[in-house]
Structure formats: C-alpha cells, structure tokens
C-alpha cells in the first residue's frame, strides 16, 4: 500500500492512461479524485474503483479553465484537508504536418497540453508547499524526439518536459518538499492512439503504424498500466530523491 492515506488528483482520468493511473493509485491505498471534461467517463472510473473496494470520487473539470482549477483544488482541501499527488494527464493529439496545421489547431493543442499543466502545477504547489507532495506531468517521447506529422504535439510535450524541470528547481530552491517530474510514454494502446490512426486516410495510417512497430525494439505497443506503474513509482516515497527528471517508458523507441 504505497500510497496509503494519500490524496491524488488525476486529470483526464476518464479513459486511457488517466483511467489506468486512477485504478493503480487506488489499489495502492490512495483516495483518487478523477477529473475529466467527460464527466460520465470520470464517474464510471470512480464507480469502478469504489466497487473494487477503493476510494474515489469524480469531478467535472475543464483543465484549460483557471477558475475551475481553483474550484477543484479548493474542494479537495475542503473534503480531505490535503493534496499529496497531482497527475497532469489530460491532453490531445492533432495530426498534421507544419504545412497542414491551422493556427486554431496549433493553439488548441498548446492550451490543452501545455497551459493546463502550468495551471495544474501552480495550483498544486499552492496547497502542497506546507506538507510536500509529488507532481507528475505526462509528457511524451514526442517531447524528446521529433515527429514530422505532429509538430503541435511535439511543441506542447517538449514544453511540458522543460517546464517540469523549471518547476522542480523552483520548489527545491524554496525549500518545498515537492517533487516535480515528467513521464514520457511511447506508443501506448489507448483511445488517443486509436483516434490518431482513425484521423488519417487508411493507407497513411497503415504506413504510420508500420513505422511505429518497426522502431519499437520490444516489438509491441505499451499498455496503459505500464505508464500507471511509472506514475506510481513517482508518486510514492520510493522516488523521494528524484525531481526534475524525465522517466521514459517506450519499449526502447528512443534508443535509436
């Protein structure tokens, strides 16, 4: 029970990686606040956790809303008195190379993938600095290596990577017992990856999938629980001497 008595907030918790993280944290004793703009999805996950004997509640959250961040964190403090772990997981991927993307698509990606992480990190620090905590920002291997068909996603996830280091340095400099780290999933079998493939023409999607599999040394997609286990490590005291680091979980993709 590595997270016993801890309170964790997981954004984008209604599906995919966020769902897996929520379940994994609950299995290890945490009270999990599952938030998503898709409230029905978040509620389903929270109910599943409770049915399995865990502790969880669901909240509606648009992670791009500064006011809603304040409301969610205030509610957590009112209900539980503390926030120990934040997983900034909510995100989107819009496929299109630099000549195809519209400015609207670019800005939407940066707002959801980047600004929300800033808002969440700032909100968490404001209530964690008294007792400490762990902030886990979900980036991507696309925040480390380039992808011709995903410049907006590359830009946003690269920003999450370096922002996490900046926030980690600030917390350390201020003497806060807050660790800030980023997790970099490779290609994981989630609804997001499936939606990306669906957004392409069939021939292009097939070539993209073949390219991915060719470059994964372990020769398979990852599973959401693989990322959840990495987040569990960073949320627990087992990673107590880690801050400002990037944890890559990609089946060896970035070894090339």
Task: Walk me through the structure.
With 256 residues, the chain is α/β, with parallel strands linked by helices. The protein contains eight helices and seven strands, in the order βαβαβαβαβαβαααβ. It has helices at residues 16-27, 39-51, 66-80, 103-128, 151-174, 191-199, 202-214, 224-235; strands at residues 7-10, 31-36, 55-60, 85-88, 133-138, 178-185, 246-249. It has a seven-stranded parallel sheet with strand order 3-2-1-4-5-6-7, sandwiched between helices. Strand 4, helix 4 (103-128) and strand 5 (133-138) form a beta-alpha-beta unit. Helix 4 runs parallel beside helix 5 and helix 6 (191-199) packs across helix 7 (202-214). The N and C termini lie far apart (37 Å).
Structural class: alpha/beta
Low-confidence sequence ranges: none
Beta-strand portion reads: 5-15%
Beta-strand segment tally? 7
| Major β-sheet strand ordering | 3-2-1-4-5-6-7
Shape type: globular
Question: Total helix count?
Answer: 8
Report helical residue fraction: 40-55%
- Any idea what the radius of gyration is? 17 Å
Task: Name the average pLDDT.
Answer: 96
String of helices and strands: EHEHEHEHEHEHHHE
**Oligomerization category of the chains in this entry:** single chain
The end-to-end span amounts to 37 Å
Largest sheet: 7 strands, parallel
